[in-house]
Request: fold
Amino acid sequence: MISSPEQHSSVRISCIICAFNEAPRIAAVLAVASVHPLLLEVIVVDDGSTDNTAGIVKRFPSVKLISYPVNRGKSFAMATGVASAQGDLLMLLDADLKGLTSENITALAAPVLSGEADISLSLRQNSLMIFRAIGLDFVSGERVIRKEFLSEALKEIHGLPRFGIEVFMNSQIIARRLSIAVSRWRHVTQSRKTEKLGYLKGLRAEWRMITDLLQTAYPIALISQTHQMLSLRKRWRNDIRVVYRKVRRQRALTRRLRSLLLSYNCLSGRCKLSRCAGPIDRADRKSPSSGFGSYKNCGYFPSDDTAVKLRSLALRNIEKDLKMPPVTRK
Reply:
């Protein structure tokens, strides 16, 4: 259940959006974020854009705009936004989201506001397939965290590669053993760089971003980060246990239904097993369990409880339902 904004009106959240040449896309994000009741302020850091990003942001009077002329990368822009934020919590959003709604923002903030988790991350509809499969996007740009988590490390963030901020945050989350909640944004997508820049330029931009990630952490370390963050995800292990129990219950139910069906067919003379010789008594076989409803050749032996129930069911109802001669026992 998602908490309502009124329940957490005393908690202040600053929303930080880092943007570089996002004029065609940022208005859709600001239209939602700038009027959301949970957000104390929305800060857009224009990272040296050469298009009309700043002009689009100025159309939203409640949004605070920070601009500088030279592109410095997302890590630097994030540090600039954190230093300017006034809220107790920070909500980090990408500027190129499509399909964002007010409910998505509430769902992202709710786990941290309620104390259920220390950090919350989004899982978008077009996150990589492997991320959707494991239920965690470790490089998600949409997060809710406490401000001191980043304000204490501003010097380190300034020294990061251009796109190393998410991996750096992950390392701090793991070091502090902070619990993680994942908000599934089923109808929200992020514009790929190939969509923004064209195929070749987009590929080069994607490769530069991957290079920055590898400068922050080695490939094996990135895999290790994902594994450790999964262990910190709220209810991750409980989810596995629940699924396992459901599978076991389903299998047990399947076996029980098969048991009833086989015994029903056998007692009614409708058994289709070619080797079945029909029901026999306990004395006719060596198995210590109940003899009623077991079979000489097909190897099927129901439990004692099943046999007792089947005895009553068979003698009272089966013949009547199937309009067959009564089943007699010796």
